[in-house]
From TrEMBL:
Protein name, per record: LysR family transcriptional regulator
Pfam families on file: HTH_1, LysR_substrate
Origin superkingdom: Bacteria
Entry's Gene Ontology BP terms: DNA-templated transcription
Length: 297
């Protein structure tokens, strides 16, 4: 095998196929077509004179040679990513790009306004926002900053807890405004709950513990969807207070539910913590979040 013939593009193809197990998955990861992945893999195997993947109905499995090349690809990617972070760490200017990952709920309820103000105060900094309930890797530079609710932030990241997200039961104001609040009991009402795909295990557990599943015939797979559903009828739902309190069509029906309190963190990779634009962003946005969440106590 002539190692000088292997390019970084080739290693990316091998890595993406090994990661996803399919040509279509590799194509989506790399932003190229299924046919292009197939062609480049075939060319590489012909060039090296080895089979890199075993084909089957279930997908592509690395051969011994493929495993070897995949390990090289991972090491090269780690080296490239490390250099990028170290070079970014030398940037002391308040300019450049910050890529932020957060959830749709946090963006809609807390961050959109704060981000717009930050852009006005720091016009030379470009914000790229990845809105997803999936965790993006800060180690692979999929994002520079993560703003997420979590009880266990990854040990590989640095940051600070900026507050606690509190949650309460909310219902449509028109229906509930003349009824007793707080509710004297949780059962007996129609409930809107989280769909399992939402992944809100804490809320699922709380509802089950309080015997609410038998009253829940309406489930939604996003918190913003649950908020919209709560506006539309007489069913009630647990929502973050930062969403419910700012919604004029809803009213709060209980005190905050202590067992559903969730810390909110703003996190970055250790190699980026001294980058001036990253430091400024985390301080400004973090302090703004702290003030909003403290006002809800």
């Amino acid at each position: 095998m002539n190692e000088q013939q292997i390019r970084w593009d080739d290693l990316q193809i091998v890595s993406a196929i090994a990661d996803t197990g399919t040509l279509s998955g590799a194509g989506r990861q790399l932003g190229i077509s299924h046919a292009t992945v197939f062609r480049r893999l075939t060319n590489l195997e012909n060039q090296l004179g080895v089979v890199l993947f075993e084909r089957s109905r279930t997908g592509y499995t690395p051969s011994a040679a493929g495993e070897d090349l995949f390990a090289v690809a991972r090491r090269v990617q780690e080296d490239i990513t490390g250099v990028e972070r170290r070079l970014a760490g030398k940037d002391l200017k308040l300019s450049g790009t910050i890529r932020v990952t957060t959830t749709d709920t946090l963006f809609a309820g807390l961050l959109a306004t704060s981000f717009e103000k930050f852009r006005g105060d720091y016009p030379d900094i470009k914000l790229e926002v990845v809105i997803s309930n999936q965790v993006h890797s800060l180690s692979k530079r999929e994002a520079d900053v993560a703003i997420r609710p979590t009880g266990n932030p990854p040990e590989t990241l640095v940051g600070r807890k900026v507050g606690v997200i509190r949650q309460s039961v909310y219902g449509q104001r028109h229906h509930w405004q003349n009824r007793p609040a707080p509710l004297d009991t949780l059962t007996g009402y129609q409930w809107i709950g989280p769909d399992t795909h939402m992944g809100n295990r804490a809320l699922e557990t709380w509802m089950a513990r309080n015997g609410l599943n038998e009253f829940c015939s309406y489930r939604v797979d996003s918190m913003l969807g649950m908020q919209s559903a709560s506006r539309s009828g007489d069913a009630v739902a647990v929502l973050p207070d930062y969403l419910g309190e700012s919604d004029s069509l809803l009213c709060r029906l209980t005190d905050p539910i202590a067992e559903l309190d969730m810390p909110l963190w703003i996190l970055t990779h250790p190699d980026l913590k001294r980058v001036k634009r990253i430091r400024e962003f985390t301080q400004v946005i973090g302090e703004g979040l702290r003030q909003v969440l403290d006002s809800e106590k």
